[in-house]
Amino acid sequence: MKDPRNFALRLAFALGTFDALQMVLHHNISPANSDWQLWSAACLMPFAFYWLVFWPVRKFVPENKVLAVGWFLFFARFIKYIIAHLWWGHLEAASMRFAIGIVACLIVLFVPWPKLSAMLKKAMPVMTVVGLVCMIVFLNTPEKADTSAGPVASAKKGSPNIVLVSWDTVRADVLPMYGGTMLPMPRLQEFADTSIQFNDAVAHAPITGPSHASMLTGVVPPSHGMRSNVREILPENVVRLPEELKENGYRTGGFVAAYPMRNRFGFGGGFEVYDDRMDESFALRLKDLGFFDSMWVVPFAPIMGKSTRASTPGGIVQQRAFDWLDSLPEEDPYFLFLHLYDAHGPWNPEGKYKEIADAGLGKALPLAAMEEDVKPFARYRGDVARMDDFLSEMLAELEKHDPGLENTVVLLTSDHGECFGEGNLHKTHTESLYEATQHVPMFLHLPGHKGAGLKIEETVTHSDIYPTLMAAAGLESRSERNENAFPLQQALLPGGMVDKERKVYMEAQHFNLERAKGGDRRIQAWRTPKWKLIKGVAADDIQQLWEYRQSEEVNLLEQQPELAGSLLAELLAYFGELKKVVAGEVSQSQADAEALSDLGYVGDVEEEDQN
Predict the structure, then answer these.
(1) What pTM did the predictor assign?
(2) pLDDT for 27-36, tens place per residue?
(3) Of 319, 277, 248, 205, nearest in space to 610 by CA
């Protein structure tokens, strides 16, 4: 090579081309579907980074060593790429774009075009300056909520406003209306007194993504396809509640607080506004671009490493929702989905919430199942107490738009609970199908306080939320929802709920359970009004039989083999008849990988503090 320093420029340009292609192909970044700040930074910063890296090589390294140093940096980049993708298990998924990048590098390096080096001498400094400017603008531009077109049809006259509130990780039995003690929730009690309270509401899954997917689609996890957090995309062909409401003239807004609920996992479908902005927008924007695909992000690792957990405080989330409500015309009915994460660990109550935690330490009911969980359980109660103040603020805002909530439906629930020693599970929920995680609170406020103070003992589920809110809007659903789901308004009928002997399918299928220490720990459950059967992945792998309202510590499998066999047959028959949907797998970004780690989904499930 006649001029090693000029060839070093080709090496820099080739690596910039490789990184730009990886980022664009991985994240589908283009001017057609991305903000200009994003696609310009993604496409130009790799060239700026490598020009800055190779500049001192070309300037100060002796000419006879320039190529050696250049080739070392070149191959080090590919070794780092392969190791990172192997470590996180993404090499197979990245193989096609990796091959495309290699071919592009070879073309840049060996194309017989003598003028290329001269062009690069002039072009790369300009690309560097422009790339740095675009990066600075990108990182300092406030993130915006995802938006789409509003409804094309007008709503029926008199259509009620509809509000779905989910308190993440709130187990029913800590709340005073479900038997919990020493946890003051005065506003929730007032709300319950004017609402219908469901005493046996059940979650189909013990984690955030699948549970909320069931709320919004009306089907169990195998039928909407989302079985894990931060790994799958809720398929577009699964009909969602906000889609149907929007088609019928509703303004739809979703405001969520935690990473597993981000739009990139499919939750934004049907929402005119879906606000999933996390509290640390700067760090998360970098993480979304990722270490996997471009080296220029690596110098920001200390900033990203110090970022907080991937969630946003409830006060911020609610204010975003309030601002959206204030922007709507008063005559337009709305569907508001509000997800708050403040009861999720790690728990660190302060002020009056810490006083509540300390007062109930070791005394409040229910007691922690194991001694080591006494303090965490108390801190958890302190953070649950915070939710009452959020509720008070939210109801005040709703009444500002509809005094007395005379034309507003509010359904309040939780996606799952938390284990504090149940089944030897500590501060976790991912692999639990215990009542601690599956029994959730649920309250339905209807216009005119219809059914106020009514307490329903029949079993209801997250799948019932979809038909309930559609019925509240006076609409017929076009979705193939769970046939074993009913509008909760049936509780007001003279005969009450249709199915008095409700049986519920539940599953814990998060992907890390499959590769847990000790073998595959994914489980399914069949819950009847009296019994709960737990089975593993094999068809005949019955693990537990509980008379769960009495105890989930006593396995009655040996005493009741015929009953267990009968329940297993029911479970297998139900599961076999389900319409199964396979969700798309997310192309993991660095943000996803770190969220999995932050939220406790990397490593042995016994050691996790999970989402």
Answers:
(1) 0.81
(2) 778 787 677 8
(3) 205
